[in-house]
Design a protein that fits this description.
It holds the Pfam family adh_short. The chain has 240 residues and is of the alpha/beta class. The protein contains 8 helices and 8 strands; from the N terminus they run E-H-E-H-E-H-E-H-H-E-H-H-E-H-E-E. The structure holds NADP nicotinamide-adenine-dinucleotide phosphate (NAP).
């Protein structure tokens, strides 16, 4: 790899939308992509499945402070900086049915909200070493307060209170980082991949991972005049 290659980390990249985001970014010249996976073996297999020279697995469980810290340490010792962070790891337990228990809230927030925040926090010193830091939060339109507040809004029939609230929290976390680093020129944005066929929803989604990844990839590659602090999907901006 060249010294000018962008160093990219995608969390939860051993499958689904994360793996596709990693693939699309790694297919571009000048990008070295770390395939984040909470399970080391799944990360190795996913990186190998891409058959690309510029990808490597990185073990990171975003619900574990120790795992986040060792991943950050490894990136620091190998590359000394991070240019693009995609907070993609996520879980959707509501789809299993049953009531929204304390355990479900804690586990879901631990990955979708706190995991994304604490991964970003741990990687700030490395993003500060980048000349053009980009952070993408892979959220969901189910986190939109505006859609939920409208009785005729999008996805009205999906309760999913745990997942919805974890993604709404993620959106606020993203906005906090966008505001914090706006003056420094960082681009921090939120992406809705849309209802996509992956293990998250037992493959009930209708969209493809190829389409779902496009918006995140675009936000990862924004130039100096690109937007920050936005919530969008591939068709355009959506309301908070
Ligand atoms: N699919 C959709 O329709 C849809 C719609 C809107 C938003 N999204 C969002 O898109 C993102 C990707 O979802 P997906 O559909 O690609 O789902 P997926 O195929 O189930 O992939 C989720 C990824 O997150 C990883 N993950 C789960 N817990 C983790 C943890 N504690 N630490 C690190 N990684 C963890 C999973 O790892 P394991 O393989 O080890 O479980 C997996 O790699 C999620 O944030 C999701 O909320 C998806």
């Amino acid at each position: 790899m060249s010294a000018t290659d962008k160093i990219v980390l995608v969390t939860g990249a051993n499958k689904g939308i994360g793996l596709e985001i990693a693939k699309q970014l790694a297919s571009l010249q000048g990008h070295h992509v770390l395939i984040g996976s909470r399970d080391a073996e799944r990360g190795v297999e996913a990186a190998e499945s891409l058959g690309l020279p510029n990808v490597e697995p990185l073990t990171i469980d975003v619900s574990s402070d120790a795992s986040i810290a060792s991943a950050a340490e490894l990136i620091k010792s190998k590359y000394g900086r991070l240019d693009i962070l995609i907070n993609n790891a996520g879980i959707l337990q509501d789809i299993q049915g049953g009531p929204p228990t304390r355990a479900r809230f804690e586990e879901t927030f631990s990955v979708n909200a706190f995991g994304a925040a604490l991964t970003t926090e741990a990687l700030i010193p490395l993003l500060e070493q980048s000349s053009a830091a980009r952070v993408v939060f892979v959220s969901s339109d189910l986190g939109s307060l505006t859609f939920r507040a409208d009785p005729e809004g999008r996805n009205v029939d999906i309760p999913a209170v745990v997942y919805r609230s974890s993604k709404a929290a993620m959106n606020m976390i993203a906005l906090a980082y966008a505001a914090r680093f706006r003056e420094r020129g960082w681009k921090v944005n939120v992406h809705n991949p849309g209802w996509t066929k992956t293990d998250l929803n037992y493959n009930r989604g209708t969209g493809t991972v190829e389409d779902a990844a496009k918006g995140a990839v675009r936000l990862a590659l924004l130039g100096p005049d690109g937007e920050t602090g936005t919530y969008s999907e591939k068709e355009g901006v959506i309301p908070w």
